[in-house]
Amino acid sequence: MSTDDTENTPTPGPTPFEQLGGEPAIRALVDRFYDLMDLEPRYVLLRSVHGSTLDDARDKLFWFLCGWLGGPNHFIDRFGHPRLRARHLPFSIGVEERNQWLACMFQAMEEQGIEPGLRTRLERSLFETADWMRNRPN
């Protein structure tokens, strides 16, 4: 009988960060998300709350998603705990803003060719997070 416990420990599968393709894929997803927000008329409300430039938002979402998806904690290293709800309280977020954010992200994920099973899992998690961010009753 072996005393090595590693034989009975299951090897964890790849993280969503790894499944997506690491930092280059996360950057491409974030860039497509913000490009869509900037270009598509159906995301005009969402775009209007982001100010004149999207550069800062692009970086912060990229840094956040890297860690949230199981990769490097770039956001935490720079800013500490994400405190998502507290950081978004200055912005009026209702159902319509939530829905536009999700639609834009889901479109970006589809256009980036994210595998359907992983995309479905991410969509569920993103919905829960985005819904939690609402700070205005509708």
From TrEMBL:
Keywords: Heme, Iron, Metal-binding, Transport. Belongs to the truncated hemoglobin family. Group II subfamily. GO terms for molecular function: heme binding; metal ion binding; oxygen binding; oxygen carrier activity. This is Group II truncated hemoglobin. Residues 1-21 are annotated as: Disordered. SUPFAM superfamilies: Globin-like. The keyword Methyltransferase does not apply. InterPro entries: GlbO/GLB3-like, Globin-like_sf, Globin/Proto, Hemoglobin_trunc.
